[in-house]
């Protein structure tokens, strides 16, 4: 009987300890509740519009040919003579209006002679790094890249080509 009383006392004590305190509730003050949000944006579409074209460069001695990213105009220094007509590389980006995108471009591109693959020139790519999309419709927003090439006096005559890999991504 003594053990029964002890067991009953221990059970009562355990129940008292395990019983929860009076429940309390709290609410977040009005106007400070967290909200759920989602912004829906259109997928980016990138379309090449024009190639970067330095035109026909006459080489009497080493020099640098530069295509301006903004105007598309070409200028030459040293022993180079540049043509009157040239173009910057241009792309059109389509996406969500007023969103900013990063333009990911290579620092350099190897231009390889179309007949002799061992003859190369290095194109140093220049131009903007970001762009705000101003039109989300079919028109899109254009951007252009320019660059320069160091042409040695010993450059083999002929056509040099290379691919300018550009991507865009939302910020």
Overall structural class, as computed from helix and strand content, comes to: mainly beta
User: For the CA atoms, what is the radius of gyration?
Assistant: 34 Å
Number of helices: 1
Large-scale geometry: elongated
Q: Give the topology string: H per helix, E per strand.
A: HEEEEEEEEEEEEE
Range of strand content? 35-45%
For the terminal residues, how far apart are their CA atoms? 78 Å
Major β-sheet annotation: 8 strands, antiparallel
Low-confidence region ranges: none
Mean pLDDT: 90
Question: Could you give a quick summary of the protein structure above?
Answer:
The protein has one helix and 13 strands, in the order H-E-E-E-E-E-E-E-E-E-E-E-E-E. It is mostly beta strands and 171 residues long.
């Amino acid at each position: 009987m003594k053990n029964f009383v002890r067991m009953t006392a221990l059970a009562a004590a355990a129940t008292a300890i395990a019983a929860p305190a009076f429940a309390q509730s709290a609410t977040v003050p009005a106007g400070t509740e967290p909200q759920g949000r989602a912004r829906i944006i259109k997928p980016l579409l990138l379309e090449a519009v024009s190639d970067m074209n330095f035109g026909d460069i006459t080489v009497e001695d080493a020099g640098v040919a530069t295509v301006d990213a903004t105007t598309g105009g070409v200028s030459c220094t040293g022993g180079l003579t540049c043509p009157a007509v040239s173009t910057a590389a241009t792309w059109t980006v389509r996406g969500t209006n007023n969103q900013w995108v990063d333009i990911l471009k290579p620092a350099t591109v190897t231009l390889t002679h179309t007949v002799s693959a061992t003859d190369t020139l290095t194109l140093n790519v220049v131009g903007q790094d970001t762009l705000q999309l101003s039109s989300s419709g079919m028109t899109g927003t254009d951007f252009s890249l320019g660059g320069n090439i160091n042409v040695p006096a010993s450059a083999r005559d002929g056509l040099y080509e290379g691919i300018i890999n550009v991507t865009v991504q939302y910020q």
